Amino acid sequence: MLPADNSSLVKATVKVPLDAYMMDFVFSEREDGGIFDNNYGMDYHLPVFGGVAKEPPMHVVHIAVEMAPIAKVGGLGDVVTSLSRAVQDLNHNVDIIFPKYDCLNFSNVKDFQYNRSYHWGGTEIKVWFGKVEGLPVYFLEPHNGLFRTGCIYGCRNDGERFGFFCHAALEFLLQGGFHPDIIHCHDWSSAPVAWLFKDYYMHYGLSKARVVFTIHNLEFGAQNIGKAMAYTDKATTVSPMYSKEVAGNPMIAPHLYKFHGIINGIDHDLWDPYNDKFIPISYTSENVVEGKRMAKEALQQRLGLKKSDLPLVGIITRLTHQKGILLIKHAIWRTLERNGQVVLLGSAPDPRIQNDFVNLANQLHSSHADRARLCLTYDEPLSHLIYAGADFILVPSIFEPCGLTQLIAMRYGSIPVVRETGGLYDTVFDVDHGKERAEAKGLEPNGFSFDGADSAGVDYALNRAISAWYDTRDWFDSLRKRVMEQDWSWNRPALDYMELYHAARK
């Protein structure tokens, strides 16, 4: 390697065979060792142009127990669908293997038909096939009734149900003559795929495949996650910051050499203020001020709030301790003190927390009926209207592996107000003290953030946000335009996953 252009850069000339379509580089200080750079175990993976060979498409199979919009509980379901679509758009082949729950939303399954049957573990398993959001999905229906329970999670034997499904999915690949390049499994529920594959199926005939495992939330199923980490070829989690936050966990620490943080994207077709049937007018960054004004008026009218130009804080969340419920309550009162309006949409799995918020909703209805509304339920159309009509979306999570709320907010020109943790830290750059961090990512600041998990932290971010709305409206409107033009789609993350798949296959 020779010095280039009197700078610190070096250049090298490499002879490339005509039938090569890709080259991998690792840089080393000396021929016999020294410091080397292998891009964190991924190598520098560069396409070759002008040769006679084209890269063959990769075949990726996801084995998962959630998928939006047919059976979604949390962010895992969004990722399975959106990542698969993005990889398919890069001209690779993607299949999804999925349980045939009796509570599936079949209105979103196209061309649903019986495919075949096979036997495993003394049970007949029927296979159905259909397309979901343009993706091929194989639905497994075992005759033992494990998925005729009326729900996705929440049975006494969830571990047994999903363990059976993982085994059945690998058996389906084997008996069906599939030879995928990558088998991608997710969280504790399909983690058994990793060790079942390595202990059995790779010796039976699925020898070509490599296993990739993604942790969406480390809070659940630690034992399964730890075991999958030991067996998988590459592991990911859903943001670089969360990967650092969990690096010391005993399940993860021994495996850091194969562990990578890749931020989730959002589905730009699903979340698109230009093509959204749930909001009054379509808008882009060019007419964001008018679009959001109309949406705010529609939101105020729908919820019976005062029709007036006040700063509106939206909160869309599951009401759990992870999501910062004490900080949410504090922010509601702080917003009202600043003469703002506040709309919360969300419900609590814990009846005590739900009841607590019902009481708060009643209290606010008697004291601030024209400026506060708590909708303690799940309502997809209303969530779209809040994203469009709010000035700010508050996400004060105690921990947040990735978070999609702040990304959707920006897509709709709502300014995120977030706590600096996990994926919130990786995607929101404070307008006052996040400029350098944003520049390092090739971005401009896009929100308001705070560090501590206390009321003073919330006040620090929320007061600056509301003051900016009152005092510097032109600047605030230009910030709305800016956040709408940032790309938080799956375009970049899909390329990062393809790099990971290539590295796993070596």
TrEMBL record:
GO terms for molecular function: alpha-1,4-glucan glucosyltransferase (ADP-glucose donor) activity; alpha-1,4-glucan glucosyltransferase (UDP-glucose donor) activity. One of its GO terms (biological process) is starch biosynthetic process. CDD domains: GT5_Glycogen_synthase_DULL1-like. Its EC number is 2.4.1.21. Pathway: Glycan biosynthesis; starch biosynthesis. GO terms for cellular component: amyloplast; chloroplast. This is starch synthase. It comes from Acer negundo.
